[in-house]
Amino acid sequence: MPEPLLKIEGLAFSFDRTPVLSGVNLEIHAGENCLLWGLNGSGKTTLGKIIAGLLRPGAGRVNINGPEDGAPAGMVLAEPDRMLLGDTVLEDVYIGPENLGFDRTEVERRAFQALDYVNLLDYRDRPTAELSTGERKRLAVAGALAMGVELLILDEPFAFMDDAQAERLFTVLHGITESGRSTLVLSGHLLWPKRYDRLFVLCDGAVKSGQPDEMARYIDDLTAVCSDPPETVEGG
Ligand SMILES: Nc1ncnc2c1ncn2[C@@H]1O[C@H](COP(=O)(O)OP(=O)(O)O)[C@@H](O)[C@H]1O
Ligand SMILES: [Mg+2]
């Protein structure tokens, strides 16, 4: 096995004195499409923010083998409206690479490539305020891709999406992992679990992991482990 892209060891985190995460161990390899599933309030968003560098861990180690230029991990928040800063689609995607200090030509190259990737190139001059929920999420994904992230974390990406929109986003995620980068979906719903390479369950402040098939057994048993198991939306 090559070195994992992300390696978390003994991670703990508390808000004030209330522990949220206690002893999280987690490894993600390059090219893996992962799902972290857990109850509402189990700490998925908190863990994602720690990996993306938006929160500082209380204890433990978070290691990402990222690129020299760019940001190793990026997170698309649950409410993409909060993340859209540009007036137009193109301006919004420029912001990340501009802040990383790339020159104009490189900013444009990255922005156009990322928009093409999520199928929003034709929308580049549209005001961000006019986009649908699914388009906003895809724009937020483009913003992270333009920054050159190796690990893309998406918090509840399928919320408020219909099946066709979810399908389109899944296609984008699979394209990302095919190009050797990794994705981590955080969700309280088990939407299409078998489409992921790896499934993590966050429970009692720690993470259990496995292949979707092997985790299926565990999921059946989740009632024994979690007092109030997450809602199952769909199999497949
Ligand atoms: N800013 C905050 N201050 C204090 N407690 C918080 C804050 N954000 C989240 N929490 C608490 O931390 C726990 C984990 O929250 P979160 O990471 O959002 O879980 P999830 O994403 O799995 O729903 C919850 O009990 C939540 O109430
Ligand atoms: Mg959350």
Give a description of the structure.
- The chain has helices spanning 44-51, 89-99, 104-117, 133-146, 163-178, 212-220, 222-225, and strands at residues 6-15, 18-28, 33-38, 59-64, 73-76, 151-155, 182-187, 198-203, 206-210.
- It is α/β, with parallel strands linked by helices and 236 residues long.
- The strands form 2 sheets. The protein has a 6-stranded mixed beta sheet with strand order 5-6-7-3-8-9, sandwiched between helices.
- The chain is globular, with a radius of gyration of 17 Å.
- The two termini are 29 Å apart.
- Bound molecules: adenosine-5'-diphosphate and magnesium ion.
- Magnesium ion (MG) is lined by residues 44-45, 155.
How are the SSEs placed, and which strands pair?
Elements: E1 6-15, E2 18-28, E3 33-38, H1 44-51, E4 59-64, E5 73-76, H2 89-99, H3 104-117, H4 133-146, E6 151-155, H5 163-178, E7 182-187, E8 198-203, E9 206-210, H6 212-220, H7 222-225
Parallel strand pairs: 3-7, 3-8, 5-6, 6-7
Antiparallel strand pairs: 1-2, 1-4, 8-9
Bound molecules: adenosine-5'-diphosphate and magnesium ion.
Adenosine-5'-diphosphate binds at residues 15, 20, 38, 40-46.
Fraction in beta strands: 25-35%
How many helices? The count is 7
Stretches with pLDDT under 50, minimum 5 residues: 223-227, 232-236
Question: Which value, in Å, is the CA radius of gyration?
Answer: 17 Å
Question: In this structure, how is the largest beta sheet organized?
Answer: 6 strands, mixed
Q: Tell me the distance between the termini.
A: 29 Å
What small-molecule ligands were found?
A: adenosine-5'-diphosphate, magnesium ion
Overall average residue pLDDT: 86
What's the total number of strands? Answer: 9
